[in-house]
């Protein structure tokens, strides 16, 4: 809605869906990202969902963000969309998003 109101060009995908849990732009890379994802999103995926998602597989090992809180998943999602030659990202997360007690399977 924000994009449409301001007349900003956008591509939200061919189907109405959450590009966070169902990446509608798998091969899309961008130079800049500015976002304010939802803080501390709970139960954002099922226990066995997205375990082989390329956004969460880095340097030959898999880091699956916890089901209980999507903050780390948002960070990985943002990083996966950046064009590595011009990458700039700005995002706002909740206090303590990078200092959590959640067990990340590596």
Describe the structure.
The protein is α+β, with helices and mostly antiparallel strands. The protein has one domain. Helices cover 15% and strands 11% of the residues. It is built from two helices and four strands. A hairpin with a 2-residue loop joins strand 2 and strand 3 (61-62). The longest helix is centred in the C-terminal third of the chain and has 11 residues, at 71-81.
Keywords:
106 residues, alpha+beta, two-stranded parallel sheet, two-stranded antiparallel sheet, 2 helices, 4 strands, 11% strand, globular
- The class by helix and strand makeup works out as alpha+beta
Radius of gyration: 14 Å
**Termini separation (Å)?**
37 Å
Low-confidence stretches: none
* Rounded average pLDDT: 77
Topology of this structure?
Elements: H1 2-6, E1 32-35, E2 57-58, E3 61-62, H2 71-81, E4 88-91
Parallel strand pairs: 1-4
Antiparallel strand pairs: 2-3
